[in-house]
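WARN retry 2 of 3 for item q-0093 after timeout on previous attempt; input resubmitted unchanged.
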Amino acid sequence: MTAPTTTAPATDGPDDRTPPAGDAFDRDVLPTPPGATAALLRSLLAPMRARVAVTSLLLLLQQAAVQGSPLLVAYAIDHAVPALRADDHGPLIAVAAGYLLCALAGGALQYAFINAAARVNQDVLLDLRGRIFRHAQALSVDFHERYTSGRLISRSTTDVESLRELLSEGLQELITVVLSFVYITAMLLWLDLGLGAVAVASFGPLYALVRTYRRRAGQVYGRRSTAIAAVIVKFVETMNGIRPVRAFRREAANDADFAVLNRRHERSNGDALLEMARYVTGSRLIANTAVAGMVLWGAYRVADGTLALGVLAAAVLYLRRLYDPIDRFGMFLNSYQSAAASLEKIAGLLAQVPSVPEPSAPEELPPLTTGSPGREVVFDAVRFGYRTGGEVLPRFDLTIPAGQTVAVVGSTGAGKSTLAKLLARFYDPTGGRVLLDGTDLRDLAVPELRRGVVMVTQEAFLFSGTVAENIAIGRPEATDEEIERAAKAIGAHDFIAALPDGYATDVRKRGGRISAGQRQLVAFARALLADPAVLILDEATSSLDVPGERAVQRAMRTVLQGRTAVVIAHRLSTVEIADRVLVMEHGRIVEDGPPADLITGTGRFADLHRAWRDSLA
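OK item q-0093 returned
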């Protein structure tokens, strides 16, 4: 069967296009729904309401103990010292005992508060990191193809660290400042209404200063968080691509690019420090002016007998204690602005909805009977285009009977890998359906789908760990004998057994301890052990040399029996194991038939096959 040719432009994946200007993924900040940041913070603290209440009570009692000492000073000046002149030591001893008791209670309560707050903070951060990791795994492939891993790392490290600083240090400063303001203002007004009024009058300029700093610092910390993420992204991309960097001598160019990003980060840090310096200078000017005014006015009142000296001393101590936390409040605002910018970005990430969602009412595939030849695959009027534009599959219809091995060939951009990704449900079609034994893939729960369909890609990604652990990823419960049997079936046992620790050898990061071809063999063994009903091989033999490819082909002739297989291949030698060949161009099937029939014909596959044979000669 031969389908008509079409000239509609198509591409095989999103990497061929540049995202349009203004796309959210071009920016470090994902769009955050209104209220999402506050909702995230509430959800993090909600399970710990009781512990937060106890922690707050401890700080309240600690502040009460600390703020009692100026009253004792006032009592000592106005009562204990005159009593001592009259040879009465009792009031002074009582003052000393009270001062010591306040100091001990304040220290003990401070220790208890720090311990309780640290436990709450770590539990919140533990929960948040877990949410980011779980949600990032749940997001669809198209998200990860557009939002870099460096930014995800920044969200779970730098941004979480900003929140840690706020929770561990900033909130204590905020609560301390608030309690100090309330308690000290009340005490000043109680000690002397006029002195209290001086303190209250200074709150206006302080409020204006705080508001200005918060607005300006919010902008600065938003830029700083973006600059940090850009540095991390560049570093991660460069290290992941270190081989092409060295091969094409990109070190100098990368240094120049990194220097630009690093300077941008430096400038954003400098702007943050400058805003902090302005705030501290302004707050100290207001505080010192208010204290000087109170001392001057209070001294005149003490001189004319309308104010007790002890009351003035206590008022000055209280006022100093009122303004001393102002600098620390600036540190809180510093932490708050940084954490707010970070939390907004985390909330934006967690607000992303997978484009391949779980079904609301998942169905189960009918059970396979013993000896059943895999499952039937049907592409029913499927249409698909990536977000970055253009339709890859304008309308695609295909039926693959159960147990049939289909090879898909065609030029780059023909839509071969897109077909594989739709069958693996890395993407959902924009129109039509992909059916597995008559069930729409969108109606299958992800675990059910992954048991039925397994894909081996061109990049044989191995995780840090042993060879056996990498083979058993699809079936963690597999025994050592089953793992070894799968490796033997695919032809990987001999090189694995020759490794220093055999199947217990750690392959290290990305499987760097073994060759590319060996990694591909391990990936094949992994897929075979999972025993899927449908197996997708997307350029899966591209990393193998000729002897290795032939060994895999011999194994595949056996292991593909009893299952449906879709083989995407550029190497036409791989096609020889197929029952049927599809030739694709511009998202359409232009030839369809057994490989032997197509080779002897005059169509595209025959031309491709002759060119391949000539290249071997």
